[in-house]
Amino acid sequence: MSLGQIIRKKRESLHLTLDEVAAFTGFSKPYLSTIETGRVKNPPSDKLLYRLEEYLKFDSGHLQHMAHVERMPADVRQDYEAIDAENRQYKQILKDIIRHRLEPDKLGQLLSQCDMDAVADISEKDKPGQLVPIINKVPAGYPAEFDDMGYPVGFADDYVRCPDIHDPNAFAVRVVGDSMRPKFAEGDVVIFSPKADVANGDDCFVRLTAPHETTFKRVFSAPGEEMRLQPRNDLHAPIIIDGSRINGLYRAVIHYQKL
Prior knowledge:
The chain is α+β, with helices and mostly antiparallel strands. The chain has helices at 3-13, 18-25, 29-36, 46-55, 62-71, 74-100, 104-112, and strands at residues 130-139, 158-162, 171-176, 189-193, 203-208, 213-221, 226-230, 239-242, 246-256. The radius of gyration is 26 Å and the shape is elongated. The model is unreliable at 122-126 and 145-152 (pLDDT under 50).
């Protein structure tokens, strides 16, 4: 069912006329009619769709989401719909498993009934890369108080696109200070991956407690429970901290230099 057909069906179920909808939305009756009959080339604006959602009692964002999908180029939309179909198939399998409380020996039988190859496999296609949030700046000097501005994971005011990142929790920061020169200069953007393994000598975003601070350093295990935070700039001395203060250690995986 098209977007226009869905709008018309809902309007008629509420016993509303096009004149009434036009009066509420501020858009003309002829234009609304062309939407319902599918004679418009492009989906309507978000402003109109928001008003239609409100007046016709759709869930907030429902019509806008449908319109955004319709605006996609054909090839992108095909990939999106393939992924969506695959996700729904997986969810149905999980529901069947939970509903029937399947024994392990019956699980294979259920999976064999599902054509998992029916959905186009787009995982090997080239992709433009994941958008990684730039959450704030990190001091490449003495540890300083850090504020990630309260953003949920994956959200920020600015982003950087990273083709080779496959970690949904990856984040980026801008370097402040000169303690990590010559490799990292002030203003450079560094991407960190929480799921990347950390080894001695790695360049890491270090999050500390008591007090709440962060810094960007090479990390080395020290005798006992201590950790050595080593600058790359020989003009800066290493910092020895109690390992119990560390509540986050994230390895740098991509470096964008400021030109």
